Amino acid sequence: MALTQLPLVAIVGRPNVGKSSLFNRLIGRRQAITHDQPHTTRSANYGQVGWSGRHFTLVDTAGLSKADGDIELQVRDQITEISAAAAVLVVVVDAATMVTTDDQAAARLALKTGRPVILALSKIDTAAGADLEAWRRLGIPTIVGVSAIHGRGTGDLLDAIVEHLPTSAAPKIASDTLKIALIGRPNVGKSSLVNNLVGKQNAVVSATPGTTRDTATQIIKYKNQTIELIDTAGLRRRGRIERGVEKFSALRTLAAIEQADVCLLVMDASEAAVAGDQHLAGQIVDAGKGLILVMNKWDAVEKDEHTQDYLTAQLRRDFQFAWWAPLVYTSATQGLHTPKLLELASEIASRRTTQIATGPLNRLLERLTAAHPPAGHKSRQPKINYATQTATNPPGFTFFTTYPDLIHFSYKRYLENHLREEWDFAGTPIHLEFKLKHRDRHARDGAKS
Predict the structure, then answer these.
(1) Do 24 and 120 share a domain, yes or no?
(2) Which DSSP symbol is given to 114?
(3) Is 21 buried (19+), middle (13-18) or exposed (0-12) by CB count in 10 A?
(4) Both 334 and 435 in a single domain?
(5) How many domains is the chain built from?
(6) pTM here?
(7) Where does 63-206 show beta strands of DSSP type E?
(8) Residue 167 forms part of a structural domain
(9) pLDDT of 37 over the 70 cut
(10) Is 171 within the bounds of a domain?
(11) How many angstroms separate the Cα of 97 from the Cα of each of 1, 127, 287, 383, 446?
């Protein structure tokens, strides 16, 4: 279940009034995507804020509107649930415009909770000559003018918020938090998986591709392990990524890969893996992150006793470069095998910190080179003298040899395969580097001079 150790302060309001810009300003970093296009924020975005000895979790919600589409209905349900759990609500309006019916609806929703409510007049720097008194008709007594871009009034807003909160110590950030990013093309079920793993409806899900545009995070506990789930925007092929919000979303998704320990590459089981899936897997591998291949929506596939074996064989061919990645068939809507994802991710994170002593590593190397020495070229015969582990997260090994440029990729695969047989590195890439032995380097440099 989600952790709720700090008081929750919710930002609500109609679309495009500056909620996400204010959220970014208050948490001190550009976490939420901001854009002039309405409905940029679709899923709740969380960040922590400390002010005057008080600490709280700030949540940026999607724009509240009267539209009756599937996404808008889910957004309203999400905002209602978050508002009911909040200790303080901040209703954000655009001070440079007139009061709208959506502004009135947001104010009614906030006041209905019975919690303290603050009205933030956003974009106050552009509201010269506006009738600010008209906003008092919303019935919210505490009104603060703010400019997220210039920081004007944000201190006053924070003062008004923490007035209703208890003094609290700064939260301790667990150094052993496992970060799991869900990566994939649009509409493969990433947000549904997050909702299933968290245990409640938090991310907005829809059959409309591109529903998730931000990277939204959730903190859960699993077997005493703190896990941060990162739900990312669906990535299309590079040539199909549109400018503006979608491009920002793609950049945030790539940043999420860099932040994660383990990535779940989510695919639609009703479709064959496409080049886009392989490209995403390649980016994850290149970043050195743990990888689990997830075939979601398995419940929607018509199958017989051979379907899974056939699909597994096809996927293993398509993802030969990540043959070590576990493959899991899931259904986010039915909860099929979803707990297994957390179990596997935890195991992979542990393997990524594995440290192999030099003695056992070199004894394995002696056996491998004796059974199958590396091939040479004419009078040049590579000889691997010794190896040592030089990195973790992911594990990395350096082999000192003569003629490192002659070590063929097939021999590198031979060594990697046996390293994986000897020590369990399933789910994580391992890096092998071949360097010229120091003495040989000096001799070669002397010969050149």
Answers:
(1) yes
(2) T
(3) buried
(4) no
(5) 3
(6) 0.62
(7) 88-94, 117-122, 142-145, 178-184
(8) no
(9) no
(10) no
(11) 40, 8, 46, 75, 77
